[in-house]
Design brief:
The protein is an alpha/beta fold. It contains 21 helices and 14 strands. Strand 3 and strand 4 form a beta hairpin.
Length: 482
């Protein structure tokens, strides 16, 4: 079988480079590259992407071996039906390794039609390293490399304000573009750039905070023969993803004109403020994940799908999401539609999402993803939410580390694990509860001060210990139904 290449696929036309993308990993290829291909196909956007390898040991050479081509499989479930779509991605026109071809990297700044910079260098990628210099080939930090590229463009086009770039980072940190912009300006100061360059950065370039949402399992290593059987060419860069797609970008009318996603069927929202959408995702998708993990592992499940398909555990997840939904200040139809899609995503038969994998750092996750919903429910109803409270008790029980003679997959910092070990050595469940809830290092506040919470957590722990998870939950829940 012939290896994937442009000649064999009849793709002789080379698109102009309009996008520089820092990152060649699965997520960007299944999300951003897919999105721009939609623009090309449905709007005639005619945008080629130059992919820059952000790490020394990357895989740009594999992209170049296939002329930038690869196959995306979208696998999922919608309203109970399995779906699979196959898309050959054709808009990556250059792969550049700045560690071996630094001049090629700098030449990207001279591309006349370049408009956008996209990145996903992981949460740790947007960092400031004060030892980076513009003479390094390349500098260590991604923002330093981008600063060099922007300065090269500024100089090449003599500060032309029409040659500024639209910078859209996709790293999973809040206010990602604001943080990136701040660091770039710090490098401009550190490197004693002239005032005109800083003015060009501030006035000719624009920075846009984003939220991205799509599960991308990546290369289907264990099922690769099945996937290859559906193609008439050899592809070493197959990537799999779920069909769900959400890209929220902060920007105004000017950005909508630059990126006319409204003319496609993609769920791209260009909005003044992305925070409500971030809250929606963090509270429902991430919050449901975090609440189900200790609960479902104690019950004996191993995967997310197994959890939501189970009669008892599935109903618990539904009830928990209902409690979360009631705390959100958005259009109820949008909230309910998103929650319904989340449940479809959890049921995706193509993704084996292990609960033990999601269990990493559950305390910090609970603080950010779940605790705000619990506190908001109390404020709205002057009553503790039954399911969120019970899930909190399950979290505390989970961190004991064992259950019915089995070791639980507790994965957290040694400090947190040690503090739970000390708490569980106390004399009784009330003491355990108070020790955990009062730990401000965990929660950012003393939760024993919340009226009724220590009592209800202690009760839930007692029910779990004495009656098991299912009977314990039913006994605990009766008081909320009376």
């Amino acid at each position: 079988m012939e290896k994937l290449n442009r000649k064999s696929q009849g793709l002789e036309h080379k698109l102009p480079i309009k996008v520089v993308q820092f990152g060649e990993g699965n997520f960007l290829r299944a999300f951003v590259d897919y999105a721009f291909q939609k623009l090309n196909k449905e709007v005639g956007f005619d945008a080629g992407i130059a992919v820059v390898q952000p790490l020394e040991n990357g895989m740009v050479h594999m992209l170049n071996d296939q002329d930038g081509l690869y196959t995306l499989f979208l696998n999922g479930i919608k309203k109970g039906e399995k779906i699979q779509e196959i898309e050959r991605i054709t808009n990556v026109v250059a792969g550049i390794n700045p560690y071996t071809n630094y001049n090629d990297y700098l030449d990207l700044a001279k591309e006349a039609e370049l408009q956008f910079v996209i990145s996903n260098t992981t949460e740790a990628g947007i960092e400031y390293i004060d030892t980076d210099t513009p003479q390094m080939r390349p500098p260590v930090a991604f923002p330093a490399r981008l600063t060099v590229l922007l300065h090269e463009r500024f100089q090449h086009f003599n500060g032309d304000p029409t040659k500024g770039l639209t910078i859209i980072p996709c790293e999973l940190i809040n206010h990602n573009a604001d943080t990136l912009k701040e660091i770039i300006l710090k490098y401009a100061d550190l490197w004693q750039s002239d005032a005109a360059f800083k003015t060009w950065l501030l006035e000719a370039c624009s920075f846009h905070n984003t939220l991205v949402d799509r599960i991308v399992p990546g290369y289907p290593r264990n099922e690769i023969e099945e996937y290859n059987s559906k193609l008439d060419y050899q592809d070493d860069l197959i990537v799999t993803a779920e069909p769900f797609f959400l890209w929220v970008i902060e920007g105004g009318e000017a950005l909508k004109q630059k990126l006319p996603f409204h003319k496609t069927n993609l769920n791209v929202k260009i909005v003044d403020d992305m925070q409500p959408f971030r809250t929606l995702k963090v509270r429902i998708l991430n919050g449901a994940h975090t609440t189900m993990v200790p609960f479902s592992l104690l019950y004996g499940n191993e995967t997310v799908k197994e959890t939501v398909d189970g009669d008892f555990t599935g109903q618990f997840v539904n009830n928990t999401i209902s409690e979360i939904n009631g705390t959100l200040q958005m259009d109820k139809n949008e909230i309910n539609a998103y929650a319904e899609e989340v449940m479809d995503r959890f049921r995706n038969p193509f993704i084996k999402h292990l609960l033990s994998d999601i269990a990493l750092n559950s305390i910090s996750k609970f603080k950010v993803r779940v605790l705000p919903s619990l506190l908001q429910h109390i404020q709205n109803h002057q009553q503790l939410p039954a399911n969120l409270t019970f899930s909190f008790a399950c979290l505390i029980r989970f961190y004991k580390g064992d259950w019915n003679g089995k070791t639980l997959p507790v994965k957290d910092t040694p400090e947190i694990v040690g503090q739970f070990k000390s708490a569980w050595e106390l004399s009784d469940l009330e003491a355990v509860t108070n020790a955990v809830l009062s730990n401000e290092d965990f929660w950012g506040e003393d939760l024993t001060k919340i009226d009724g919470l220590p009592r209800e957590i202690t009760l839930a722990l007692s029910e779990i210990e004495n009656n098991g998870l299912e009977q314990g939950y039913q006994n605990f829940n009766k008081q909320y139904q009376s």
